[in-house]
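Hi X.,

You mentioned you wanted examples for the new student's onboarding notes, showing what a folding record looks like when two proteins sit in one file. Here is a clean example. The first protein comes first, with its sequence line followed by its C-alpha cells.
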Amino acid sequence: MAAKIYYEKDAPIDALKGKKVAVIGYGSQGHAHSLNLRDSGIEVAVAELQGTDNFKLAQEHGFTPGDIKQAMDGATLIIVTVPDEMQAKVYKEQIAPNLAAGQTLGFCHGFNIHFKYIVPPKDVNVVMIAPKGPGHLVRSEFEKGGGVANLIAVQQDATGDAKQIALAWANGIGGTRAGVIETTYKEETETDLFGEQCVLCGGLTALIKAGFETLVEAGYQPEIAYFECMHEVKLIVDLMYQGGMSYMRHSISNTAEYGDLTRGSRIITEQTKSEMKKILSEVTSGEFAKEWVNEYQSGLKTFKELYDKDYNCQLETIGRRLRKMMKWIDSKEV
C-alpha cells in the first residue's frame, strides 16, 4: 500500500495562526523549527538554559529565551527538541508540572514516547513531526524556498484536531513543500534506530574503517587509502541520492560497476544480514533503548572510550591533515 503523503494544500497553517508555539531547546532541530515557524508568521517562545551557547544564539537570532514554564504558558503546541537521553528528566521535572489539558506535545523523534520513558496524560495531544535531515538543512532549505521531507505521527488525539496542528507545524517549517509522510511512533522510532546503527552511521563507518585498515596493513600509503575509502564515499552517495543505485552504476566506469555487482555481496553477506536482524530485534524489544539510557545515566564511560578511540585512530588523524589542504570542501573539525 502506498504511503500517505501530505503537501501544502493538505496542511493549512491556520491551526497555529494567532497561537503560541513553545520550542524546548535551541539546538540542531530547535533553532530551525523556531526560526522557520517565526518566519511563517507564528508566535514562538524559546526555552533554553541561561548562559549556554544555545541561549546566546537564540538571543542573537532575536528571541528572548526563558525557562520552560514561561515558554509553555498559553502555548497551543509545545515542541520538545532536547536530546533523547535528557527528555525524560526534563519532562518529569519541568514539562509535566506545567502541562494544561488540551495542549499539544510535539516531538521530532519517537524514542521516549514509544519506549514509554515519557507517558503524557490522556488530556493532551501527542504528535510528531520528524524532519528527514539535520536542523541546519531544515533551515537552509526553508530559506531557499524549499523544504526537507517530514514524517508525521499522531500518538494521542485528545482534542480532535491533533493531526491538523501537526500538519500546520510541518507547513510552518517547510516540510509540506517536500512532502510529509504518515507513519506511527513505533515505525519511525524503530526504523530510525535501525538505519542509524546498521547502515547510515554504524554500518558505514565500520565499512570505511575496515577498508582503510585493510589497505594500510597491506602496505599502501594511508593518504591513498583515505581517498579511496573515505573521501570518495560522498561522490558515490551523491549519485545514489540523485538517482538510486541504477544512476550511480550508470555514472561510474564499467570496471567499477562490474566490481560492484560481483564483489559487494562478498562483503555484506547473509551473516551480515543475520546480524542486522539481531540488531533490529534489540531495537524493537527496547533492549537498545534500555542500554542507551543506562549508559547515559551511568556517566557515558563506554561511549566516551569508544568515541576517543575512533577520534584518535589513523583514519581520522590522516583525514584531519588532508582536509586542511582541501579548501573547497569547507572542512569541519571537532
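Then the second protein repeats the pattern, sequence line and then C-alpha cells:
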Amino acid sequence: MISARKPIDIRGIRIGDGVPKICVPIVAYTEEEVLKAASEIIETAELLESKYPGKRLDIIEFRADYFDAVTNKVILIETLEKIRKIIGGRILLFTYRSEEEGGYLRHDRAENMIDDIYEWVIEKKGADMIDIELLQGNYYVVRTASKAHDRGIKVVMSYHNFEETPHDRDIEEYLRNMEILGADILKIAATPRTEFDVRRLMELTEYILMGKIKGYPVTHPIVSMSMGEMGKISRISGAKTGSAITFAYVGEESAPGQLTLEEMFSEM
C-alpha cells in the first residue's frame, strides 16, 4: 500500500494511510429528501459493513449544488446539523460543484453566492471537510482555505475535467498548485478517451506518491479517478496507486462510472 507523507486525521479516520476511504454523496433536492437519502445511506452502509467485515463507509458528501435551499442560510445550516445527527461519527464533506466541473445548475442566485454559502458553512463548522475547486481563482481559493483551517475544517481541493485527461505535466502542475494554495487533500478527476488514459492517471498517482517527481515533492493525500465506464478500474485500485478516497453511491450516482456501495465493498 502506498501512503501519503502527510496523512489527514479526521474523527479518528486516517485519510492517506494507504487504505482508500469510501465516500458516498447525498444527491437530493429538498430537506426532506436529503435527510431521507442520508438515512438510507447509513442503513445500507450498516448492513453492508456487517456483511463485509473490515469494510467501512467513512465519508458522506453533501452535494449542495442539488439542494433547493442552498441559498437560505438558516435552512442550509439546520440541514447540515440534521445530517450530522444521522451519520454520527462519519466524516461529512460539503461540496458545491460548479456547472463547469459537472455540478447540477439549479440556482441562478447560488452561482453568485458561493462566497456566502461557504462562509456560512465555515462559520458554523457545518462540515468536517469542504471541497474547493482549484480553478475558482487563487485569491478565492487561498482565502476560503485559510478560513476553513482557522475553524479546524480540512480542505479537499479539486479539479474535474469532463472532456479529457490532461497531460502528465499539467496534472503535476495542478497538484503542485493545490498544495501551495492550502489543500489538505488533492483531487483530480478526469475523463479518459482511451484505456491508456486510465492507466496513465493511475500510474502517475502512484509515481507522485512514491516521491518520484523531482523539484516539488507532493506530500498530501491524492484522490485520483478516471470517470465513466472505462475508468471504473481506477475507483477500486486505490490501495495500489495510493489514491486516498474513492466514491460510490447509494440511490443516485453523482458522477459517471461510480459503483454502488455494495460493488465497492465486494471489489476493493
